[in-house]
Amino acid sequence: MIGFLRGKLVLKAPPLLVLDVHGVGYEIEAPMTTFYDLPALGVEIMLHTHLVVREDAHSLFGFATEADRTMFRTLIKVNGVGPKLALTILSGQSAEQLHQCIHDNDTLALMRLPGVGKKTAERLVIEMRDRLPNLGETATLTPIVGNAKQEAVSALCSLGYKPLDAAKMVQGIHSEGKSCEDIIRMALQGTIR
């Protein structure tokens, strides 16, 4: 999987952007919340990415923050929500706003988003309630190189742990001087005992 890309911004045509990474142009679809923060063409940027592989296409999605990518990954796990709808939802609300809507059971705010009807809004609230990362984790914007604890939480989520459970697993681990792999190993050993 491609975790992030760093390169020069070559094209901005929402929802598509092209990033030149050492002579290779990556077509990336991104939510409008990411486009709002993009600099001028020719400037080097870094995007957190998520690759979706289907039988007929490989699609790369890019996000300005780790919080947006985490929310995207949580959204596409909801029954009936694919990558395109998840991108639309994140274009209409930031990860923090969406988190608040889910936390407050605010289906009316969700129904204002394009492509989200009453049933989908209710499903989002019900299915995402237990999967959401805690608000502090969502609001944290990661720099170009994330810290080892954040990377460990992300890796544990990729292994199937819920974001809240993954955050709890690494919470008590002293991470100074430890690699992401060390933190993951310690977190998994803590669950085995």
Write the layout of secondary structure elements.
Blueprint: E1 4-13, E2 16-21, E3 24-29, H1 32-35, E4 44-53, E5 58-63, H2 66-75, H3 83-92, H4 95-103, H5 107-111, H6 118-128, H7 135-139, H8 148-158, H9 163-171, H10 180-192
Antiparallel strand pairs: 1-2, 1-4, 2-3, 4-5
Helix pairs in contact: 2-3, 8-9, 8-10
List keywords for this structure.
3 domains, 5-stranded antiparallel β-sheet, OB fold (Dihydrolipoamide Acetyltransferase, E2P), alpha+beta, 5 strands, globular, Helicase, Ruva Protein, domain 3, 193 residues
Short description:
By secondary structure, this protein is of the alpha+beta class. 45% of the residues lie in helices and 20% in strands. The chain has a five-stranded antiparallel beta sheet with strand order 3-2-1-4-5.
Shape: globular
Q: Structural class, judged by helices and strands?
A: alpha+beta
What is the CATH superfamily classification of the largest domain? 5' to 3' exonuclease, C-terminal subdomain
Helix content: 40-55%
Count the domains. Answer: 3
Average pLDDT metric:
84
CATH architecture call of the largest domain: Orthogonal Bundle
Radius of gyration: 17 Å
The end-to-end distance, rounded to whole angstroms, is: 31 Å
Which sequence of strands runs across the widest sheet? 3-2-1-4-5
Tell me about the largest β-sheet: 5 strands, antiparallel
Give the CATH level 1 class of the largest domain.
Mainly Alpha
Strand content: 15-25%
How many DSSP-defined strands? 5
Low-confidence stretches: 135-146
Order of helix and strand elements from N to C terminus: EEEHEEHHHHHHHHH
What is the CATH topology assignment of the largest domain?
Answer: DNA polymerase, domain 1
